[in-house]
Structure formats: C-alpha cells, structure tokens
C-alpha cells in the first residue's frame, strides 16, 4: 500500500479529479465521488474486494446515520414554503424588530428558514417578498437581496438539519445536537455581519425593486395563512428536542438529580435527530390551513424527491470518506502538520479551496469532511468538542467564496436583477468576509470552550 508523499500525491489527484469532473466535465457529484472512492482505493493498493466493501459500507453507514433526518427536513421545508408559513415568519420578525431594520429582518428570516430549506430554494421562495419589502422601505433590491442571501447562507453551512453540516457531523463523528447548538451560537453574530455588509456595501448598487406583486397579493396567492406560533413551531420544536437530548446525554455536566432514569431515556429518544425531525414534519402538517391527503401524500412525495439527490451525494461522500479512512495518512500528517497547531485553520483552508473550485457548498463540506475525518488525531481535534468545531470550521470554509461556478450565485444574480459585475462586488466579496469572520469567531469560541471545559 502507498505511504507518505506518494499517498498524499494520490490524494491530491483524487481531489483534482473531483474538481475537474464536477466543474469542467459536468459529471454529477454523486458519480464523481463514487468513482474517486473506487479509484483512490485501488490506486493506493487496497485489495479490490476490500475497496468494494469500504465503498458500500461507507455509503450505507452515513445514510443510516442521517438519511431520515435529511428527508424529514426537506418535508418540513416543503410545508413551510407551500403553506405560506415562510412569509409569516418574515412578517413576524419585521413586526417585532421594526420596519427601519428591514435589512436585518431579511437576514434573520433567511437564517431561520434555511435551517430546513436549501438556501437556493429559500431565496426563490422569498424573492417576491423581497421586492415588495424593498419597494415599501425605499431600499435597493441589492441591499435586501444580499441580506437575505447572507442570512440563508450562514445557517445553511452551520446548523443541522441542513444536509451539509449534518453530513459532516456524521462523517466526522460529531454529536449532531452539539453541532446544532454550536452552529446557532456561531451563526447569530455572522447573520448580522451579512446584514451590515448589505447596508454598507451592497446598498451602493441601486436596483429598482419593481415588484410584480404586493405583499397582500402574495398572501392572496397562498390563501389563508397559518398563525405565527404554528409557523415557527416546525423549526423551533425539533431544535428544542435535539438540544434536550444532547443535555440528557451528558447528565453529569447538567443536573444529575433531574435528568436520570425514565426522563433521561425519553429525552434521549425524542432528542434523537431523526425522531425530532419526524415530529417536526408532523407539526408542519398541522400548520396547513386545509389539511388533506395532498399534504400527507403529494407534499411528502415532493419532499422525498427533493431529498433524493442530497441523499445520493451524501452517501457518495461517506463512501469516499470510508476509503480515505483506510489509508495510512496519519503518520505523514503528524510529521508535517502535527506540530504546527493549525487544526481548525487546516479544515477551513481545505474547505475554502473546495468551495472555490467546486461551487457547491454541500459538496465542499462532504469532500473536506471525508479528507479531514481520518486526520483528526493528527490535527489535535479528536475530542468531542474538537469534532464539533471541525464541522463548523469546514462550514466556514464552504462559504468562501461563492462565484460563477456556484448555482446560488446565479439565483441571487437573476432574482435580484444584478449585473454579473455587481454580483461579484456585492455578493462574492460578501462571502469572503463572512467566511473569514466566521473562522475567526469559531477559533475564539474554541479557545473559550477550552478554558471552560
């Protein structure tokens, strides 16, 4: 079997293959990752039968861990979109914060909705509302477009059950509940960084909103809207349940007199991410004004279809990671990087390179997680909190940067009426700022956690 520098060169070639196959040859990431997994294992000298076994076990292992979570999350997102709950969430935040803070409202709204919904879909869902709010507030469409895009982007890469971070948690072996809690802590200030950039920079590029529909017309299209409490419930209740499950898993660090026995066992059950998200999906059914089989059958089917591609790519990423974990990379990394103390920064830089080259944040997260997982010990990150912060560092890198090879870049450009040059200045530079700010904040939090725990 290959070792040392030849093995690292093979690894670099595998990554180059994924980049070229997906970015230049338009090969689907599912196929690119699977081919890379097989070829890397064979070229490294692993027995062919073992390579085949590693790929299938890696594919099934990661889906067994997060498959239900991804499907349930897409079902929740479908219900939020089609019931009009997403609009209710935006207006609720606007009412509490105030119309003078419309930019912050759009960023915050995006951050809520992107937890179960892909940021691409979230931006499309809110594009009509974005135009109407820009018209009403007298702001440039570029301002609210970048604010919304930034808010969606932040939780998309940091907070499960969004597929990227939850897949990274599965590959790296991080506790999903802790990743969710830490992801929320990381996301909170970064969302306001996105809003600040929108106000100070994106606002310099004036774009007339020219709304096709008023907010009232948007509401009429949905019909009777769900209540505020009902709209937030499918998002907040699963998060609360998962948080309680994580606390129950560490009773000694919380309150051993309270979280023991049957209570602990039930909290661990309902706090399991798959169970919590399934509960969230049934809560989402309840927010629909006219409950029928169309919701429980057609909408669920659409959600499952939306999840299919995510599941396929996630499974392929797990297969690639399983092959990499069988390679003797640890000694080389220990000798070359172990004493440098770059830990999280290494994960960030690799993810940023993948994102810039590949375009897809999710693929960048999956590829980087697969690369980093076998090296956690060498990088000094093989602890409970180390794995959590590694997932977050990868998420920060996967934002850096969004440009022409990213479908999200073009969705923002088209739905915000931006010229391409404007999008590079208003949005691409924003993702650079968001990514760098995020990794600085993550490193600070890691040091604080190191002192406390």
TrEMBL record:
Keywords associated with the record: Membrane, Transmembrane, Transmembrane helix
GO CC aspect terms: plasma membrane
Regions that span the bilayer: 6-23, 30-46, 58-80, 101-126, 138-159, 171-198, 232-254, 266-288, 308-329, 336-354, 360-381, 424-445
Keyword DNA-binding on entry: no
InterPro entries (alphabetical): Glcn_transporter
Transmembrane among keywords: yes
GO molecular function list: gluconate transmembrane transporter activity
Protein's name according to its UniProt entry: Predicted D-glycerate permease
Organism: Halohasta litchfieldiae
């Amino acid at each position: 079997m290959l070792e040392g520098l030849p093995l690292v060169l093979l690894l670099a070639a595998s990554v180059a293959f994924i980049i070229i196959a997906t970015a230049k040859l338009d090969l689907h990431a599912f196929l690119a990752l699977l081919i890379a997994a097989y070829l890397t294992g064979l070229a490294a000298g692993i027995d062919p039968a073992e390579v085949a076994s590693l790929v299938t076990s890696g594919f099934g292992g990661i889906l067994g861990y997060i498959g239900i979570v991804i499907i349930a999350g897409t079902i929740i997102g479908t219900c939020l979109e089609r019931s009009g709950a997403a609009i209710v969430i935006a207006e609720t935040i606007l009412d509490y914060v105030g119309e003078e803070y419309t930019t912050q409202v759009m960023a915050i709204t995006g951050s809520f909705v992107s937890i179960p919904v892909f940021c691409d879909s979230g931006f499309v869902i809110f594009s009509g509302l974005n135009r109407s709010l820009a018209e009403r507030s007298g702001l440039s469409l570029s301002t609210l477009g970048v604010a919304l895009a930034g808010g969606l982007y932040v939780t998309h890469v940091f907070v499960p059950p969004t597929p990227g971070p939850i897949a990274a948690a599965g590959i790296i072996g991080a506790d999903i509940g802790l990743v969710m809690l830490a992801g929320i802590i990381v996301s909170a200030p970064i969302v306001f960084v996105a809003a600040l950039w929108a106000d100070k920079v994106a606002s310099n590029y004036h774009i007339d909103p020219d709304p096709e529909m008023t907010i009232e017309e948007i509401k009429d299209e949905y019909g009777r809207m769900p209540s505020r409490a009902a709209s937030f419930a499918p998002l907040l209740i699963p998060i609360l349940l998962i948080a309680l499950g994580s606390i129950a898993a560490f009773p000694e660090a919380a309150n051993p007199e309270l979280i023991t026995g049957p209570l602990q066992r039930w909290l661990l059950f309902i706090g399991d991410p798959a169970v919590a998200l399934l509960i969230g999906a049934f809560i989402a059914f309840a927010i629909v004004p006219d409950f029928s089989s169309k919701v429980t059958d057609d909408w669920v089917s659409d959600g499952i279809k939306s999840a299919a591609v995510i599941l396929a790519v996630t499974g392929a990423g797990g297969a690639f990671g399983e092959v990499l974990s069988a390679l003797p990379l640890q000694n080389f990394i220990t000798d070359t990087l172990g004493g440098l103390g770059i830990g999280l920064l290494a994960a960030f830089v690799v993810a940023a390179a993948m994102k810039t080259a590949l375009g897809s944040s999710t693929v960048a997260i999956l590829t980087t997680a697969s690369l980093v997982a076998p090296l956690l010990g060498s990088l000094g990150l093989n602890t409970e909190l180390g794995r959590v912060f590694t997932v977050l560092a990868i998420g920060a890198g996967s934002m850096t940067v969004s440009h022409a090879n990213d479908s999200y870049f073009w969705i923002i450009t088209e739905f915000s009426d931006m010229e391409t040059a404007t999008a590079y200045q208003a949005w691409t530079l924003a993702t650079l700022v968001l990514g760098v700010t995020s990794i600085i904040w993550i490193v600070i939090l890691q040091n604080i956690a190191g002192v406390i725990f």
